[in-house]
Amino acid sequence: MQSESISLRRGLTGLSPVIIFLLLYVVVSFIAGDFYVMPFSVALLVASAWGIVISKGTIVERLEIYSRAAGHSNIIYMIWIFILAGAFASLAKEMGAVDATVDLTLRYLPASMLVPGMFVAACFISLAVGTSVGTVVALAPLAAEIGAGAGVSTSFMISVVLGGAFFGDNLSFISDTTIAATRSQGCDMSDKFKANIRIALPAAVVTLCIYLFQAIDAKPATLPADAPSAWLVLPYLIVIVTAVARLNVTVVLGLGIASAYIMGLIMGYGPVEMAGFMGTGIDGMGNLIVITLMSAGMLGLVKACGGIGWLLQSLTRHINGIRGAEVCVSVLVGLVNMCTANNTVAIITVGSLTREISSRFGIPARKAASLLDTSSCIVQCLIPYGAQTLLACSLAGISPAEPFAYLYYPWALAVCVAISIIVKGAPSKTAPSAL
After folding, report:
1. Lower CB count within 10 Å: N or C terminus of the chain?
2. Helix%, strand%, coil% for the chain, nearest 5
3. Whole-angstrom distance, CA of residue 141 vs CA of residue 68
4. In sequence order, which residues have a C-beta less than 8 Å from that of residue 179 and are 6 or more positions away?
5. Nearest CA-CA partner of 217 in 141, 143, 156, 142
6. 393 vs 338: CA distance, rounded Å
7. How many CB atoms are located within 10 Å of the residue 319 CB?
8. Distances (CA, A) of 97 to 73, 238, 276, 333, 432
């Protein structure tokens, strides 16, 4: 079925809020040499206001589009995770769980293995959990504190966690991106995994080698003679173990809060005092919640104004051969992901169109699903306004743009995707069946 043609002018106008946001935040910050000079929320506010100006309808109708996108169930669910993560992180820190975990790590793990060890842990947990958000919740606060103790920058450590988190998010059988990609292309998860791991594993190995080399600069930490009680690490162990057991991330955080609260009572903290700790953590998530709502609202306006529709139309207009088709699928889902800041939504948005392209040019369904998942994860990891980056940086107390310079894994993954298209871009003997 042929969709309505969207003009170049309308398409660029629809995308203009994203362009304005990037100009205001990224470009201004680069020019100033300081990623704190332009507040993230202000850049989003200006871009959102512009999106409302260019939208059609009455001012009430425009605001309703913005509000519906911001109030989507996926966004509200994410905000609940932010609230629980803030409460747990603050409570665990105040009762000494972070200090105890960091002390144990620095005391028994060689300095040269801190960074590689954190990357492997993030890869393993995300593969088991199937969610990059859950991995970030479990590891980001620890990574920041461990890095500080070993003389490694916080932004570097957060980039390590983000890279590992997206490795598992891309490959896990229970990841929502895997489910969306395989269902939209009509292939088995095992087939997609086999195609996907040939791309993701080499990228992870290259990234690990880089971390092994760079970790030489990590210095042995100076630790006090009296170590904190090892029992204080229990809340974090509960979070990690229950996450690996594939419990829902809200349940994982709830159990973490409950265990930290019980241990706090045992240690002599008052119930109201610990409630104050949790309240401080929740308050600390306020800016992140505002940014999440504004990002979702702005991107809802972009979609309503035809920006995403124009991208789909433009990228599929000129496809020549299977390699061109695979490049188109990768770029298509990446650009839509950039506009939606949600890799699952991006896969769902272009899924049916990708299947049509695959059927026409003979892309195996497993390869199409792999390209959808992998390319969207690359972009989601690189954009500073993705939920995972915002959450990780909020928990670590740094700017969302700071980890960008150290994000080796998504770039290595992009190179592996390009190689897979060049080397494996020969027409298949059997094309996937049409819907």
Report:
1. N
2. 80, 0, 20
3. 32
4. 189
5. 156
6. 19
7. 17
8. 33, 12, 17, 40, 52
In this predicted structure, what is the pLDDT of residue 429?
Answer: 43
Per-residue exposure over 256-278, b if at least 16 CB sit within 10 Å of its own CB, e if not: bbebbbebbeeeebeeeebeebb
Distance, in Å, from the CA atom of 382 to the CA atom of 93, rounded to the nearest integer, reads: 28
Question: What would the pLDDT profile of 246-303 be if each residue is shown by its tens digit?
Answer: 677 788 889 989 998 998 898 889 999 999 999 998 998 888 788 878 888 988 898 8
Q: Is the dihedral of CA 36, 390, 84, 124 positive or negative?
A: negative
Over its C-alpha atoms, the chain yields an Rg (Å, rounded) of: 22
CB 393 within 8 A of CB 400: yes
- Distance of alpha carbon 416 from the chain centroid: 19
Query: Model's pTM, two decimal places?
Result: 0.71
In b/e form, how buried is each residue of 13-23, taking b as 16+ CB within 10 angstroms?
A: bbbbbbebbbe
- Asked if residue 359 lies in contact with residue 350, where contact means CB atoms within 8 angstroms, the answer is no
Cα–Cα distance measured from residue 171 to residue 312, given in angstroms and rounded to the nearest whole number: 26
Residues of the chain with pLDDT under 50: 1-2, 426-435
State the Cα–Cα distance between residues 101 and 146, nearest whole angstrom.
Answer: 9
Q: Residue 275 in contact with residue 21, Cβ under 8 Å?
A: no
Q: Alpha-carbon distance 61 to 67, whole Å?
A: 10
Phi then psi dihedrals of residue 28, to 5 deg: -60, -40
Using CB atoms within 10 Å of the CB of residue 346, give its burial: 0 to 12 exposed, 13 to 18 middle, 19+ buried. Answer: buried
User: What is the residue whose two structure tokens read 């939208």?
Assistant: 55
Distance in angstroms (rounded) separating the CA atoms of residues 276 and 374:
42
Distances in whole angstroms, Cα of residue 301 to Cα of each of 25, 45, 179, 346: 19, 13, 27, 15
Residue whose C-alpha is closest to residue 373's, from 167, 205, 188: 167
* Residue from 353, 350, 332, 369 nearest 435 by CA: 353
- Phi, psi for 207 (deg, rounded to 5): -65, -45
Q: Which of these, 113, 102, 112, lies nearest to 146 by C-alpha position?
A: 102
Q: Say which DSSP state 404 is in.
A: G
- Residue 235 has φ and ψ, to the nearest 5°, of -55, -40
Q: How far is CA 60 from CA 13, 53, 68, 171, 351, in A?
A: 20, 12, 12, 43, 32
